[in-house]
Amino acid sequence: MLEEETLNAATVPTLSHPGLLVMDVDSTLIEEEVIDELGVAAGVGDRIASVTARAMNGELDFRDALRARVALLKDLPISMFDDVYHAVHFTNGALALIDALHDYGWKVGVVSGGFHEVVDR
């Protein structure tokens, strides 16, 4: 566990100096979890949610949970990525934050363990 740090002016980044923000896509940049939305589209949303819950409870590691969930999407048509992409919502304030950081010369990046078919856009 990380030790709690006392914040002071020396440890808090300021906007006056360019910086870097890297954020996760699912449930951070966007409100949804793409794999959950694909599961709903495939008619296996409850089963995918169950695997996710087991992983969150420590019963499965990330790799095993991902494999199990992706296996449930085996017959999903590739066109469903378009449907899911058009259905996701940016988290409230995310785009304004990115615009503000860009105005101050910051770089913003995203990381994801998810599907590039949605993230790359």
Please explain how this structure is put together.
This protein has 121 residues and is mostly helical. The radius of gyration is 18 Å and the shape is globular. The mean pLDDT is 87. A two-stranded parallel sheet has the order 1-2. Helix 1 runs antiparallel to helix 2 and helix 1 (34-42) crosses helix 4. The protein starts with 19 loop residues before the first strand and ends with a helix. The longest helix has 12 residues, at 45-56. It contains 6 helices and 2 strands; from the N terminus they run βαααααβα.
Q: What's the gist of this structure?
A:
With 121 residues, the protein is mainly alpha-helical.
Give the arrangement of secondary structure elements.
Blueprint: E1 20-24, H1 34-42, H2 45-56, H3 62-72, H4 80-87, H5 94-103, E2 107-111, H6 116-119
Parallel strand pairs: 1-2
Helix pairs in contact: 1-2, 1-4, 2-3
Ends distance? 35 Å
Rounded average pLDDT: 87
State the helix count.
Answer: 6
- Helices and strands, in N-to-C order? EHHHHHEH
In what order do the strands lie side by side in the largest sheet?
1-2
* Main sheet: strands, sense, barrel: 2 strands, parallel
Stretches with pLDDT under 50, minimum 5 residues: none
Derived structural class: mainly alpha
What is the overall silhouette?
globular
Count of strand segments: 2
Helix fraction, binned, reads 40-55%
Amount of beta strand: 5-15%
Radius of gyration, taken over Cα atoms and rounded to an integer in Å:
18 Å
